[in-house]
Amino acid sequence: MATDVKKMIRLVQERTAYGVPEKAPGVCTMQDEDGRPMIRLGFDAHRDCIAVIGYEAAPEVSVDICAALAALCGLTLNRPVMAASSLTAEDLAAELSDDGKVDEENRMALDAAIAMFKEAVRMYAKVYTEKKAQGIEWHGNV
């Protein structure tokens, strides 16, 4: 076997990690061609460890993308931001499958989740750098 569809559906139905933290400095938003937000992923940190992370998705976003984001949130919570940023699609595949591999049709969902997280980390680092330039000791809002 490969992709564990039951686990993916359970992650989405239970709304695992659903909801982007308010005032999250690390946020990535994917929009449709009309500029409407389709998916958001965001996190906040305490002392540079991810203290809260979540995602939001429009109803038409596929289950595999939502499950990949939920799994990503679970794998990165309470980890240092920089350590979490080394997460790979293979790490997500291990989380969402029964043998460490996902079916090819689900691969894009893993890649999208990883890309969104890397952009959220980039945004977090931008805020961190701006605060440091202002002379503010800052390691997240939480």
Beta-strand segment tally: 3
Query: Could you name the CATH class?
Result: Alpha Beta
In the CATH scheme, what's the topology name? Sufe protein. Chain: A
Shape: globular
Summarize the main sheet: 3 strands, antiparallel
Measured distance between first and last alpha carbons: 40 Å
CATH architecture: Alpha-Beta Complex
Helical residues, percent: 40-55%
Computed over alpha carbons, the radius of gyration is 15 Å
Average pLDDT figure: 93
Number of helices: 5
> Beta-sheet strand percentage?
15-25%
Low-confidence stretches: none
Strand order of the largest sheet: 1-2-3
Describe this entry's structure for a reader.
The protein is 45% helix and 18% strand. With 142 residues, the protein is an alpha+beta fold. It contains five helices and three strands; from the N terminus they run αβββαααα. α4 (89-95) crosses α5 (104-133). β2 and β3 (49-57) form a beta hairpin. It has helices at 5-13, 63-76, 81-84, 89-95, 104-133; strands at residues 26-31, 37-46, 49-57. It has a three-stranded antiparallel beta sheet. The protein has a single domain (5-126), classed as Alpha-Beta Complex (Sufe protein. Chain: A), CATH 3.90.1010. The longest helix is centred in the C-terminal third of the chain and has 30 residues, at 104-133.
